[in-house]
Amino acid sequence: MATGKVTVIGAGLCGSLLAIRLAQRGYQVEIFEQRPDFRTVTTYAGRSINLALSDRGWEGLKKVGLDAVIAPLCIPMHGRMIHAEQGGQHYAAYSGRPGEYINSVSRQQLNIEMIKKAAGMPGVDVHFQTRCVEVDLQQGRAVFEHLVSGERLEASGDVVIGTDGAGSVLRKSMVAQSAELGFNFSQEFLSHGYKELTIPPDASGGFRIDKHALHIWPRGGFMLIALPNLDGSFTVTLFLPFEGSKSFQALDTPEKIMAFFREEFPDVIPHMPDLLEDFANNPASMLGTVKCFPWQAFGKTLLMGDAAHAIVPFYGQGMNASFEDVVVLDQMLDQYGDNWEAVFNHFQEHRKPDADAIADLALDNFEEMKAHTANPLFNLKHKLELQMEQQIPEFSSKYSMVTFREDLRYSEAISRGRKQDAVLMQLCAGVTDPGAVDILQFFRDFKESMLK
Ligand SMILES: Cc1cc2nc3c(=O)[nH]c(=O)nc-3n(C[C@H](O)[C@H](O)[C@H](O)COP(=O)(O)OP(=O)(O)OC[C@H]3O[C@@H](n4cnc5c(N)ncnc54)[C@H](O)[C@@H]3O)c2cc1C
User: Fold this and answer.
1) Would the CB of 9 count as within 6 Å of ligand 1?
2) Ligand 1 atom nearest to CA at 321
3) Ligand 1 geometric centre to CA of 13 (Å)
4) Does the beta carbon of 48 lie inside 6 Å of ligand 1?
5) 446 CA to middle of ligand 1, Å?
6) Does ligand 1 have an atom closer than 6 angstroms to the CB of 132?
């Protein structure tokens, strides 16, 4: 059983899971969160209301024994329902194999279950409304301010782990000492932002559209998506450029908003009685990618989750990757015990290529979601991938490798997946009669081309 004390900054998705796992290993954990106690106070922090949870995330939940608690909070989404520009919709399964699907889960409920478990464990102290304001990297000492009393307090233990999200204060302390640490940092925002809207339940409390799909309205330069919630509603997200002819800036009157939706997403209007109200009340938020390295300083502090690698949401993997961070850190603790410097160094060396890979994949998937899901060649490739997954155990599409193959590192998924996609697109371009494709022969051609 381990001994020692860990300070965790941020009780969001990564920090809560981390606190549980560290406590299970025997560490004393003090975790500080700037929000009020979200077990009792509903806070909408402007982040997405629901999230897609997939196999890498489940591994983290299984590791701490929370999978059975979270499963009833999930709605399985077996595929994408693509709402075409010309009207009509078509369904595209995520995988050809049963049991491979993603899950819609409420961010708030997930976070509550995790912090409830953490707070109930011996050795865990949770402080809410307490904001980290700076970290002394060499000493591993974090300074906090209580947001109600204004009181300042210091936490020191063996190490400080920053799971304080994309705007991490720990990371800012590293930036401030970048010359000494050799710290590299980049932050790239998209020209698109997102706004959350709602499809409420129907009059009898039921779902107005298919609840077992992630709905997408791809429109080339922008898109709308919808994920189901347990109460019969859907959280709808509009991804749109901030500026330009079709942009958040251009949609500045109720008439223009309605005209835009009538032109682009007519089928959804009857399901969104509160469209104008939601549009006015909910912010248009930024989306970006944060890359930095090293993630640790002086063997005393470490960044994890979005604090180390915030990504755009188009692969539905940010939280999944953050949970996988906890699984990998746990493996490093198995190997290097209480030698925190070794744990942190091996963690960052192992994990950085995977974090970079999922960051790049998430950007690629933006193109795929907003444009390619409406492209006939992409749809043919997808159909043939599903058939191969059904018939050939060794085949997984790039999407399946990223989403359902927690045994495969993101960095392997990207290198195999990109090459495989290029080969498949080439082979699909040569298909004249999609109905007559011999799938076993197609797979043999695919394997041969992959070797070239
Ligand atoms: C629109 C959108 C959709 C998304 N969809 C998905 C999805 O479908 N699937 C998926 O896997 N991921 C998704 N993500 C990504 C996911 O939200 C993040 O990757 C995940 O929340 C990262 O967890 P985290 O704990 O590292 O950071 P966060 O969840 O941001 O948690 C950080 C915590 O630290 C606290 N904090 C911050 N600063 C301080 C401070 N100074 N002192 C104390 N506390 C502090 C915050 O209040 C917060 O509780 C999405 C993101 C967005 C924006």
Assistant:
1) yes
2) 11
3) 6
4) yes
5) 39
6) yes
Position 43 scores a pLDDT of 65
Residue 372 has pLDDT above 80, yes or no: no
Per-residue pLDDT tens digits for 137-194: 999 999 999 999 999 999 989 999 999 999 999 999 999 999 999 999 999 999 999 9
Question: Ligand 1 mean position to 379 CA, how many Å?
Answer: 32
For the CA of 15, the nearest atom of ligand 1: 25
Domains of the chain, start order: 5-73+105-187+289-366 (3.50.50.60), 188-286 (no CATH), 375-451 (no CATH)
Ligand 1 centroid to Cα of residue 434, in Å, is 42
Rounded distance from Cα 87 to ligand 1 centre (Å): 35
Report pLDDT digits (tens) over 33-72: 999 999 988 765 545 689 999 999 999 999 999 999 999 9
412 CA → ligand 1 middle, Å: 25
Is the model's pLDDT at 92 over the cut of 60?
Answer: yes
- Rounded to the nearest whole angstrom, what is the distance from the C-alpha of residue 306 to the centroid of ligand 1? 6
Answer whether residue 257 shows pLDDT above 90.
yes
Ligand 1 pocket residue status of 33, Cβ below 6 Å: yes
pLDDT value of position 398:
96
pLDDT digits (tens, 9 = 90+) for 291-329: 999 999 999 999 999 999 999 999 999 999 999 999 999
- Is 319 close to ligand 1, i.e. is its CB under 6 Å away? yes
Ligand 1 atom nearest 11 alpha carbon: 49
End-to-end CA distance of the chain: 51
For the chain, percent of residues with pLDDT exceeding 90: 91
Ligand 1 pocket, residue 320 CB under 6 Å: yes
Nearest-atom index, ligand 1, CA of 14: 25
| Reported confidence tier of residue 379, pLDDT bands at 50, 70, 90 | confident
